[in-house]
Amino acid sequence: MDMRKTLCVTNGRHQLGQSEDIISNLNEDVILYILSFLDIKAAVVTSLLSRRWRYLWSSLRVLNFDQRFYPWFKKYPFKNSLDKVINVLRNVQEIHLKLSSELPQCIFNWKSLRVLKLKGVDGFLWLRNPHSVDLPLLKSLHLTRVVLDMTLVNDCLSKCPALEVLSLKCCEFMHLEDLIVSSPQLKKLVIITYDQNYGCFKHYDTKIWAPKLTFLKVRDYISKRFSLDNLSSLESAVIDLKVNEHFVPLGTKQENAKRVIQVLEGLCHAESLTLSASSLEMFSSALKIQRMSSQFSNLRHFKLTSSPNDACDLLQLLMDSPNIKTLLLKMTWTNFNSYQGRLYWDEVITVCFQPSFYSTIMEANWEEWLQFQCLLEHLESVEIRNFLGCENEVRLLIVLLQKATALRKIKIVLAQVWPHSREKMMWVVWKILQRVPRASQNIMLEFVNFRVLKL
Predict the structure, then answer these.
(1) Is the dihedral of CA 170, 174, 178, 182 positive or negative?
(2) pLDDT score at 338
(3) pLDDT digits (tens, 9 = 90+) for 177-226
(4) Of 104, 254, 382, 426, which is least packed with CB atoms within 10 Å of its CB?
(5) Residue 357 burial (CB < 10 Å; 0-12/13-18/19+)?
(6) In angstroms, rounded to a whole number, what is the distance separating the alpha carbons of residues 402 and 272?
(7) Is this model's pTM higher than 0.70 or not?
(8) Domain locations in the chain?
(9) How would DSSP label each residue in 381-421?
């Protein structure tokens, strides 16, 4: 790359000249910000550009090191070379390492360090317990595919007074029975114990106590116990829980429902809640057996993923969410082959427009509809993505139209079925919803990329 080219303006036209060095004339902080996105090897190479650049890289505040860029590290240990680089970069505040070899112990006593991200590549990164942990300014700790002792995590929670963000993704913990995260200052927590690329990991009893936590993301199996205590500051939660039959102890349905309800009650302070399809199925099944002792009174924004068979299960949760404002439902093709209900894009359109067609949808024995007797006085917006044209989806919309007194807009993103089927599905759904007695007037029904209709 020619570093000597510059952009000049002459008579309103842009011209390339040779008089200046554009990048070198930038402010040093801007140059260091640009270099912070490069691997340390590429950053060091810039020292060959000119005298000004010779030692500029040594002022970097972010160290990026990816072992995969150095294939010879598998044959020759890199620890000494990395130690040398670290000793030069005394102003570093963020360290991002992707490696599978031994980690320099000096990192855990780096006084100026604010962000530490460690990720295992070509397998796991085995992390030995350091002799001491002294990171007074550390705010964010991210561990991905790391094998470690839980003592190290506890040391970081107790000896890093500024720690606000903790992320544990696909980690293995040695000599551990309970995964306990207890911190009075933690604000963001991510725990992922299974991944479609890396498989599942050992299952532990999980206990979380964090009174200042505002964001929680969990992808885990409900094993013996999953405890959420004192999350009084929680604002947003993303929950993806699964049941693994090999690790769930045998018990009555009431005992298992109580365990699941305790997890749900631990999230009751959240203003925004996102649930996976498996979590929705698990929670709704438990609510049919045992009710919650408290409601989601703070919940304003609800996001869910559901299969066609479970589209109406969220009604169980909506009964305990009286102040919800926005509802986003994403349909998935999971278990679609086992769906037994109607598919409206597969119906004869002339039959759908007959007056008797609507009465066959709202059957008197539809249990979910009969139980849903509360009003949704604050629900303003409903969006369904990947709308499959299933009977359960339409039934859900009918209930919301009848119970949501403040509803103003319904947005539907049709699934990628045959184009002519999508057009027919749109008209059939609109015709059905037109016949529904509504709690709110002037509702706009938008079919994204098609048209906006008035109900």
Answers:
(1) negative
(2) 57
(3) 778 888 889 999 999 886 655 545 556 778 899 999 999 999 887 766 77
(4) 254
(5) middle
(6) 24
(7) yes
(8) 1-27, 300-455
(9) EEEEEEE--BHHHHHHHHHHHHHBTT--EEEEEE-S--HHH
